[in-house]
Automatic annotation (TrEMBL):
It comes from Leptotrombidium deliense. InterPro entries: EMC8/9. This is COX4 neighbor-like protein. It holds the Pfam family UPF0172. One of its GO terms (cellular component) is EMC complex.
Length: 206
């Protein structure tokens, strides 16, 4: 099985990570379709920056987002995490526990670790080859989570342009909403539909 990530999903993962570099952040990955043997990772739902490691909060989020996915005929395909200060991209025990639980429901579940520490934000924004190195993909093999070859991007050039424009120039990442924000103020929309629109609009003109 291969995995291809949309620009919307990739940009939002990085936005969540860049908004809270001092925290471990995490979220859920969504797929809206398969193409032959390739799973399309179409979107992500940012979850927490203050509540990492709190299992009850994660269970609440999984329940609500599972219902959200069923209503829209999409699937929960995995989990992403960026460790604080991008110090290490190794999955911790909590990340593995979450994907183990998700794997029981969906055998295609993946774990994505955001990896920025070795080259930093300026380099991510300067070269599309760094887009491929910004995440590590893990799949479950014989009951253990092992690193797999990288994720394919739907369009690395347009993804890079979107990051350069929305993160570096417009600072849109400061507006991304996660579940922690929603718990503080229910008016905060964790679906981030406005940011999805901005990413798609940016891609369409590049």
């Amino acid at each position: 099985m291969e995995f291809k990530m949309s620009a919307v999903c990739f940009c939002k993962m990085l936005m969540h990570s860049f908004k809270y570099p001092q925290s471990t952040v995490n979220g859920l990955l969504i797929s809206d379709r398969k193409e032959d043997k390739t799973v399309i990772i179409s979107d992500c739902i940012p979850l927490y920056h203050n509540s990492h490691g709190l299992t009850p909060n994660m269970e609440i989020a999984l329940h609500l987002i599972s219902t959200y996915c069923k209503e829209r005929n999409v699937s929960l395909i995995g989990y992403y995490q960026a460790n604080k200060y991008f110090y290490d991209s190794t999955p911790d025990v909590f990340a593995q526990r979450i994907v183990d639980k998700m794997f029981e429901v969906n055998g295609d579940t993946i774990l994505v670790m955001v990896r920025i520490n070795n080259f930093g934000l300026p380099n991510v924004l300067s070269d599309k080859s760094n887009i491929d190195n910004a995440v590590h993909l893990y799949t479950c093999v014989d009951g253990k989570w092992k690193q797999k070859s990288g994720i394919v991007h739907e369009n690395a050039t347009k993804t890079l342009s979107a990051i350069q424009h929305l993160v570096y120039k417009k600072q849109v990442h400061m507006n991304i909403i996660d579940f922690d924000n929603h718990l503080d103020d229910v008016k905060c929309d964790w679906r981030n539909e406005d940011i999805n629109e901005q990413i798609n609009e940016t891609i369409s003109v590049n």
